[in-house]
Amino acid sequence: MKSTLLTKPLTKAHVEEIAGQFEMPDLTLPFWGYRKKMPMHRIVRLEGEGNYTVFHFADGSQLMVSLTLKKMESRLSSKVFVRPHKKNIINLLYLEGIHPDQQQLSVSLINGHRVEVSRRKASRFIKQVKGFQQELVTLSDFRTNSRLAA
């Protein structure tokens, strides 16, 4: 079935600009003997692999940490990150399209990844996407009005 594009995907400049508006602080991740801060807004997707989580970043790099996806979910901004499936969390700033199929709903991200949405979570996921997009429109209107007033 044909892809349904909800809105135009955001450019890197828009992601950087919007990230500050969505309370997305740096994420401190544990490594062998030290901790490292990573910019939360540059995370495209998190993928659960047992007791590990693989981070997929906007620049194409990946990073594995020894924390479960459930633990990582509690550290992320719930306004921007959603969990469409038990193995994945996606950043809505990088959402490209939603693809309905007769059996399975999936989403595509601007880095080319495609993630399935579980049937149980599909309606909640769609509500979260619509709420996020409404907030983007509100932010866009606010920025436009601020520029006009200046």
UniProtKB/TrEMBL annotation:
UniProt cross-references to SMART domains, sorted A to Z: LytTR
Which PROSITE patterns does this one have?
Answer: HTH_LYTTR
| Protein name in the entry | LytTR family transcriptional regulator
Could you tell me which InterPro entries the record lists for this protein?
A: LytR-like, LytTR_DNA-bd_dom
A GO molecular function held by the record:
phosphorelay response regulator activity
Provide the coiled-coil residue spans.
none
| HTH LytTR-type domain mapped to chain residues | 37-131
A Pfam family it matches = LytTR
Q: Which organism was this protein described from? A: Spirosoma sordidisoli
